[in-house]
Design a protein that fits this description.
Layout: E1 4-9, E2 18-23, E3 26-31, E4 37-43, H1 72-80, E5 95-103, E6 106-113, H2 119-124, E7 128-135, H3 137-151, H4 159-164, H5 172-187, E8 199-200, E9 206-207, H6 209-212, H7 220-223, E10 230-232, E11 240-249, E12 252-256, E13 262-266, E14 274-276, E15 284-285, E16 288-291, E17 300-301
Parallel strand pairs: 10-13
Antiparallel strand pairs: 1-2, 2-3, 4-11, 4-14, 5-6, 5-7, 7-8, 7-9, 10-16, 11-12, 11-15, 12-13, 16-17
Length: 302
């Protein structure tokens, strides 16, 4: 049995991301550092990544372009035990409500377990955020619903939209200002739908641009060469991806692929593959890609 990639992680208290791996019951993580070479080659077929830390009993083959990376049965099992499914209303843990900023006019409200800290925000690719409150699960869920309606913000944003705006982020003050404005509107709702069981938390903007490597001189725009930014659309047997890691956000790795420019690898597409080293001196991409923001019609192999 080979090591199977389980995706990108953003552990609380860490300075950067790590790739997770599983081999049977064993797990490990590979810490990634910006400025270093990163590469791999896929082999064989992509197999279901399982659910809730367990391997798929069928070892089912799954589509190369699926970001879920699970067969239908494992997908249902994973969703059934998620907080979003509301199947555990008596969960005794403390939850936090947050406002997450991904780009101009692109803010969402959500909840996460308090013990996870801001890891959930980094996993979603939130460039900036602020906590709103803390309390029991159902109070946090009610606040989430009230705020979505009152502020006109969603609880989900398509990941492709988050990816598109990273090349031209406004300055930190503007990012924090937009979050602060919405926080003020949320605070004005007290007594008008804010759950009594939910403790109000003070505004404190947290910015992830430097953690993601998107700061001045290190971000997507600074690292991109001439030509469009491209994203890997899916892996293939024998296909390789290699370059210099310049940034990461959410599940994405941003690679400088030399003459091919900036290439984004959604690590959710890596789950379930057997991955080996790309080989000494390897650089570039030999898997299907799509222009970021350009639509599927521009798919192609480099």
């Amino acid at each position: 049995m080979d090591w199977q990639c389980t995706g990108l992680r953003w552990p609380e208290g860490s300075d950067g991301p790590a790739l997770g791996w599983r081999k049977g019951a064993r797990t490990r993580a590979s810490v990634l550092a910006y400025g270093t070479e990163f590469g791999f080659r896929a082999s064989g077929e992509r197999r279901c990544s399982g659910a809730r830390g367990n391997a798929c009993p069928l070892g089912a083959v799954v589509p190369a372009g699926s970001t879920g990376g699970r067969c239908p049965e494992c997908g249902r099992l994973d969703r059934a035990h998620s907080v979003a499914a509301d199947t555990i209303p008596d969960d005794p843990r403390t939850y936090r409500v947050y406002l997450a900023w991904f780009g101009p006019g692109m803010v969402k409200v959500g909840i996460t377990g308090e013990e996870r800290g801001a890891a959930r925000l980094r996993e979603q690719g939130a460039v900036a955020f602020s906590w709103l409150g803390r309390g029991p699960l159902m109070a946090a869920r009610r606040a989430e619903e009230v705020l979505r309606a009152a502020l006109g913000v969603p609880d989900r944003i398509p990941y492709a939209r988050k990816r598109e705006v990273r090349a031209a982020l406004p300055d930190p003050a503007e990012r924090a200002g937009e979050v602060a404005e919405l926080y003020g509107k949320a605070a004005a709702l007290e007594g008008g739908g804010w759950p009594e069981a939910l403790e109000r938390l003070p505004f404190a903007a947290v910015d992830h641009a430097e953690v993601f490597g998107l700061g001045a001189g290190a971000g997507t725009g600074a690292s991109a060469r001439s030509g469009p930014v491209r994203a890997v659309a899916g892996l293939v047997d024998g296909g390789a991806v290699a370059g210099r890691l310049v940034a990461a956000a959410g599940p994405d790795l941003h690679l400088d692929a030399g003459p091919q420019g900036l290439v984004i690898v959604d690590t959710r597409l890596m789950t379930g593959w057997t991955l080996t080293a790309a080989g000494a001196g390897a650089a570039g991409v030999s898997v299907p890609t799509v222009v970021v923001g350009g639509g599927a019609a521009q798919d192609g192999l480099f």
